[in-house]
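Fold it.
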Amino acid sequence: MKCVLTPVVRLLVRVRAEGRDHVPRRGPVILAANHRSFLDSIFIPLVVRRRVTFVAKAEYFDDAKTAWFFRSCGQIPIRREGGSASERALESATNVLRAGKVFAIYPEGTRTRDGLLHRGHTGVARLALGCNVPIIPIGLIGTDEVQPVDAKLPAFFRHVTVRFGEPIDPARYAGREQDRMALRELTDEVMYEICQLSGYEYVDTYATKQAEDIPTDTARVATFEEIRTPTTAAS
């Protein structure tokens, strides 16, 4: 599917990738991006040389006419009702990473409706610490100009930038997988990097819709100043 979509999308949309070499050629890795458009899950795999896997609402797979498309794009279904959808998503993501593959996540949990970058849910940190894998922050720019949240059809010949940042190593939080403060600090570091890469304004509130990827219980939010000045753990 990628070999078919790539020339078509590149013909209709001006897609530019920056820093793509930060994505390792092999081994497990998490791609964490801001979320502005339904097409974000098309643009990221388009510029990454490896196969990228996402989790998606199972409703997308209920219709056989569309299910093949989502599967071919690397998305796996998660049924949100009946138990913890977040835990099922986390389990699916863990399986992908333990197989040495690439998993992509939107820490905001849902698409922004006000154009701002919102506080991240800590699922990305849980995943990185639980699997001991690096996080590659991604700034997506202009995807909402191709297809805004409420638009049914895309607009063509717009410019999109997919900007990859340097890997974030979760090793310094090793052994603190259940520490809510550590999860929050790592998540905020990821969001800070996404903010710098995308250039969109950050607001310290969650997006309005309930998270759709790997949400977790909320914890106190560390400021970017606290991230830059790590505290020394008590001995």
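The beta strands are 14-18, 29-33, 52-57, 75-78, 102-105, 117-118, 135-141, 159-164, 202-203.
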